[in-house]
Each structure stands twice: as structure tokens, then as C-alpha cells.
Amino acid sequence: MTTNKSHLFIGQWRIVWMAGWDQDYVDMEVPGYIAFEKNGLGNFQFGLVQGQTDYHINDNRVEFTWSGFDEGDEISGRGFAEIVQGELLGHIYIHLGDDSSFRAIKQK
User: Fold this and answer.
1) How high is the pLDDT of residue 96?
2) DSSP reduced 3-state for 52
3) 4-45, pLDDT tens digit by residue?
């Protein structure tokens, strides 16, 4: 279910903290980010992990599945996030692999 709060998630969010990786890794190739487009799709990259997302928004929570690559190896997973006091707080899971909570700030 999409709500009138959906527009709050749209845009690019700069990942400023991850529990599973230090910021040097998060920003290794590009500044780490997660982005949501109006069409229910999006993308992210942190370190050498990059993926394309398919997301749904329900109230104040975005839930997504994703597929992508880690150092050229195909991987996939899922995740979720909520906007709390203007920040995006969430968790990302790599299928049969690592997972991490994250914090991101919306880019202008």
C-alpha cells in the first residue's frame, strides 16, 4: 500500500553509517548511497556492492528486494528503512551473506 507520505522517500540518500562496514569501505568507489525513484524502482551502492531495487512503501516504511553485484559476483537480498527525525534508518540483507543496519541523509 502506498500512502501520501511516499514522496518523502523519493530521491537519493547518502549513506553516512553502516554497522557492518566502516565508512572508508562504504565510500570506496563512490560516496555510499541508496536512491528511490517515483516508479517503484531504485538503486544503491556501498563499497563494491551495488544493486537495483524494487520497493514498496507502507506508511512510514519502505521495504525492498534487490539484485546486483559484489566484486563482479551476482548477489541479491532484501531490506527496509524508515524515516526517523529526517534520517533514513534501515537494514540491508545479502541473501546467504552479510547484513547491516544503515543510516542515510537525504541529498538535495
Assistant:
1) 94
2) strand
3) 567 899 999 999 999 999 999 999 999 999 999 999 999 999
Cβ neighbourhood burial of 4 (10 Å; 0-12, 13-18, 19+): exposed
Q: For residue 101, how far is the Cα from the chain centroid? A: 10
For the chain, the structural domain boundaries read 6-106
SS3 at position 58: strand
CB-based contacts of 12, cutoff 8 Å, min separation 6? 33, 34, 35, 106, 107
Q: Could you tell me which residues come within 8 angstroms of residue 22 by beta carbon, excluding any fewer than 6 positions away?
A: none
The 3-state secondary structure of 60-108 reads CEEEEEEEEEECCEEEEEEEEEEEECCEEEEEEEECCCCEEEEEEEECC
Q: How far is CA 88 from the centre of its chain?
A: 9
Which pTM does this prediction carry? 0.92
